Amino acid sequence: MPVAKYWLYQEMWDALGAWMRQYPDLLSVEVLGESREGRRLPVATLTDRTTGPAAHKPAVLVDANIHAGEVAGNAVAMYWIASLLQGFGDDPVAAALLSDRTVYVVPRLAMDGAERYLTGPDRLRSSPHPYPDPEPTSGWVPEDVDGNGRILQMRVQAPDGAFRADPDDPRLMVPRDPLDLEGPFYHVLPEGRLDRRHEVGRRPVWTEVQLTRRQAMDFNRNFPIRWAGEEGQPGAGPYPLSEPEIRALVEFVDEHPNIGAYAALHTAGGVILRQPSTGADTVLGAEDLGYYRTVSAMGARLSGYQARSNYEAFASGHERGPLMPGAADDWAYDTRGILGFTVEIWNLRGRAGAKNYAEHGVRALRRLTPDERVADDKKVLAFVDVAVPGELGFHPWRPFMHPDLGPVEIGGLEPKFLVQNPPLSLLEGECRAVSAFLTGLGRSTPRISVGEVVCEPVGPDTVHVAVEVLNVGYLPTSGTAKGRELGRARPVTAAIYGGTVVGGESPVTLSHLAGYGGAAGGNLPQRRLAEWTVRVDGPGPLTVLVDGGRAGRVEVSVPHP
Predict the structure, then answer these.
(1) Residues spanned by the domain of 175
(2) Model-wide pTM > 0.85
């Protein structure tokens, strides 16, 4: 059985190498690029080479762990690779996927940040290099001050504190209301230190100091799509594709024109996010909206996750522009016409029966009353007590003499492997669920095929050849209507070899073909006929090569009289 675990850098490379040796006809692993700190980024290619080369088959691309702390994405990617390899012999779905399609997997993009996340207490967005300021600034710096290997929450008793302990469950910090007159009251903030390096001669009031942004690069804001810069979108980087990891991914996509579908693995939320990001569903054309709705609904059925558009999930009612500019799934669809999704793995609040953005959207969550929020937080604690007992779930508040603040207490929910990622005991269920959707997404890609072939003599050493070309996949050969509009997907062509063409064109452009997912719309034909009159050169068969771009290639031998 595939192993569900959180992988360190060398462990991941060792496993990929072992699998490549064990399944040489199914797996190859190359270096996508290097991180800022010189770590190699793997890209795995899975296909049955006995049925043709990877580049000649329609492909799905999956990347993971673009955010350093979202290591469950990497766990799912590695689990999916292993499940396809191990299931190839006896799982007909895995066998079918690898027989006639190609799977590309980039199992970790934030390689430097994830290694730091997994080997120490730090939590960071994508990369550990200083950003946006090259030099540290004053402020509150998250730090493991008590040395227990985690950066938790800290509560500081103060008469002007905005929180108090819940009377029914003192683990829970709840907001004060105007009638809360008897303390103790607390300030609540991330465990850390006060860096006063630029406050010479003045002792600042600690509650006035903002949380510093020292490692705030966000790889998923660095794509060249509605890029907004640091002021418009924190974490965006100094310019689009400034980060070597993201530049390498973009170059890979452009070098592999067979990619017709894409998924990015993130945490958390328990939701499959689709286009659009710029407004309600009406901003998409009817054709692509149909593909997105159908494929995401399939994903919801297979995974048990919610399915929502980016806009529906994240719009809060006061946005003045597109949500999350510079994001990967927007780039894939809006600039390359690839059907792209973001999968947010794990939903702690949903598991606990509390309101969550996957089910309700950000707008509804922001409208919750304080009492509703507290009630939901209690549901989370009750779930954790049963599903993740002991300090794997909640770290009890413990007194600590803070070097800057004096007496404090440190504790709270486990941030890394409960809130942001599933605890290890629940990881495999998430891996299985998301893997099922990824396999279904791969099977949704277009696939060119050849139907009836007719070769009839029309004169001495001359034959007429007619070849029926069809798309047996769900999506159109362009991947999406956007792909046709942008001209990013090559139209289907057919060429004949082994003789001299005396009638017809070779190669001939057959335009794009609908898949069965768009057949009812009537926008494209599902099949076309390629015809030639050929003077044959000898007794050997003619060869017809059909190139479907994103739908792959097919070569057939045509015997002649």
Answers:
(1) 135-212+395-415
(2) yes
